[in-house]
Amino acid sequence: MANEESPLNFIEHIIEEDLSSTHSKDELRFRFPPEPNGYLHIGHASSICLNFGLGESYGAPVNLRFDDTNPAKEEQEFVDAIKKDISWLGYEWDTECYASDYFQQLYDWAVQLIKDGKAYVDSQTSAQIAEQKGTPNTPGTASPYRDRSVSENLELLEKMKNGEFGEGEHVLRAKIDMASPNMLMRDPVMYRVLHKHHHRTGTDWKIFPMYDWTHGESDYIEQVSHSFCTLEFLPHRELYDWFLDQVYDDQKLRPKQREFARRNLSHTVVSKRKLARLVEEGIVTGWDDPRMPTISGLRRRGYTPESIRNFADSIGVGKRENLIDVSHLEFNVREDLNKKAPRVMVVLDPVKLVITNYPEGETEWLEAENNPEDESAGSRKIPFSRELYIEQEDFKEEANRKFFRLTLGKEVRLKNAYIIKGESVVKDAEGNITEIHCTYDPESKSGSGSEASLRKVKGTLHWVSAKDALEVEVRLYDRLFTEPSPDTHKDTDFMEFINPNSLEVITGYAEPGLKDAKPEDKFQFQRLGYFVVDKDSTSDKIVFNRTVPLRDSWAKLA
């Protein structure tokens, strides 16, 4: 039974209606059917969460089936990445399946369709086939090969299978209706010749089935009860059902295809072809570049499985496509990391702060809580000394009353440390501030309970001890495109909207405890944002990727 604490979505209503009429609960089986021709992206994540979520809600198995029917574009690398992404999201599949497992059964059925007068070998070129299909407003015309004899069709198909023809010489088409208002029903291609190495079957097969012929029949073989697809497959449903009609045995369960709306994400593209172009043209470093909307890229960016699942749940399942602002995805990762990520202090744009009345050469170890949202997170020790780094933007030599950070003659608190007062500055020949000199109140130590420590000041700054600071590489990632919907401009290539500032690499200075951080460890850099350790880190240099700033910096640009 679906979760009754929240209203059922329309997909769940379909299942509930079927359970009350045509299906028993133990007949429910779902599937997630990726093509292994690229990495999964955030759109796939919504489909994963839908199908596997239904499996969890109804206690039903979910198959992971790779629709591996195009060896020209498919690779084992993509299979491995897809399996890793689904597992990382926290889901387990019941059976790992491949359309290639069914190649012989599909072929045998195709032979039977020829014998039944419902399929034929067409020897036209792809351009000729496209032309004689007609238009949505005009019927198609029959292929001159449509009435080939059964024996000739069987002989040609056998030769196609054995590799006796070149690519494009012949195709197998279903014989349906060249005047159908649904263009997909106008004798669709079922098989084409491809002399390519397949990642699982090698060179055993020289012909490969088309998606429409493979998909529904695979659902039928696996006894999938509900086959959920995105809306672009709605016109395919009629063909899905026609193909099933040719093989269906009423002693078995018949799969049902239903469609839901794709959720597009702003400031990115989710076409695998376009994502591949970003990789091939070197705009990004690979499929897992942290600017990519792939699940691998989001993981490397510092997103958590929970944040992606929460995002998918929050946008729900709909019947109309819409554009979801990426800020909604960012909100979900902030919400999740706020509860989990340890707080640390890192300075990204440093200026030296000298506490002139603090003893030279002395180091004091101060206590700092790891996460105020998690009492069990404990605390850590951080070194404090006479010379510190603070952010340049946290000091102004002259400031108005609305500036609550450090300025001359005013007090602020150093996080987990003392109250300081700006006294003077040191400048270079160009007039740039190279040092800020201040004094501290020794009685104002945070957490000491002294009267001075309880004194209220309006600003609190993060800092690191200069002599103890750990130098780190910090990659400041931003949105990959400047335009919310970069691939919907008819006259402009989506590449024209690439954000030239989507990556800035800088050197930061971190508290020394971060030297032991490992790849995928996540932190909140206090007052700056959420960051994750990148896999490029070495024993000599830790690399951090910015997941998101603490606040949405794009909101004020809207």
TrEMBL record:
Which gene is this protein's source?
Answer: glnS
Give the protein name, as stated in the record: Glutamine--tRNA ligase
Q: Which GO terms describe its cellular component?
A: cytosol
Q: Which InterPro entries match?
A: aa-tRNA-synth_I_CS, Gln-tRNA-synth, Gln/Glu-tRNA_Ligase, Gln_tRNA_ligase_bac, Glu/Gln-tRNA-synth_Ib_cat-dom, Glu/Gln-tRNA-synth_Ib_codon-bd, Rbsml_bL25/Gln-tRNA_synth_N, Ribosomal_bL25/Gln-tRNA_synth
List this protein's GO terms for biological process: glutaminyl-tRNA aminoacylation; glutamyl-tRNA aminoacylation
Where is the sequence biased in composition, kind Polar residues?
127-141
Q: What organism does the UniProt record list as the source?
A: Constantimarinum furrinae
Q: Where are the transmembrane segments?
A: none
What does the UniProt entry say about where the protein is found? Cytoplasm
Q: Where is region (Disordered) located? A: 127-146
Task: Pinpoint the Glutamyl/glutaminyl-tRNA synthetase class Ib anti-codon binding domain residues.
Answer: 341-441
tRNA synthetases class I (E and Q) anti-codon binding domain sequence ranges: 460-534
Which class of enzymes does this protein belong to?
Answer: ligase
